[in-house]
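Teaching assistant's notes for section 4

Start the section by putting this record on the projector. Ask students to predict, before seeing the second block, whether MerR family transcriptional regulator will look compact or extended. Collect guesses on the board.
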Amino acid sequence: MTGQLSYKNSKVITIGIVSELTGLTIRQIRYYEKRKLIFPERSEQGNRKYSFNDVEQLINIANKREEGVQTFEIRQDMLKEKRKKSGSQLRDEMLRGQINAQFGVNKDR
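Reveal the predicted structure now:
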C-alpha cells in the first residue's frame, strides 16, 4: 500500500458529521484544532475536512479529557509518539540501506 492514500487518511468528512460521530460539539473540535491536537484540511470553500483517523484521534482526545488530562499534556504525548515513530522509521531506512549495500542491491532496479 506504499504510495497510496489509505481511505482512513482521506480528508473527506465534514465537521458536522465528525461532531455526530464523536459526540463532541463543533466548538470543542475547533478548540482541539486551535490547540494543535487535530489537523483538518480546508476545502476550496474553506470548510474543514477530516479523515477517519482524525475521528479516532478526537475520540482518544475526548477520552483523555474525561480522565482529566490537559490538552497541553495530550499534545506533549502526541509529539513524543511522533518522534518515536520517526526515529523508528529512520532506523529502518538505515538498516535497509546497510543491507542493500552489503548485498549490492540497488533500489532503482
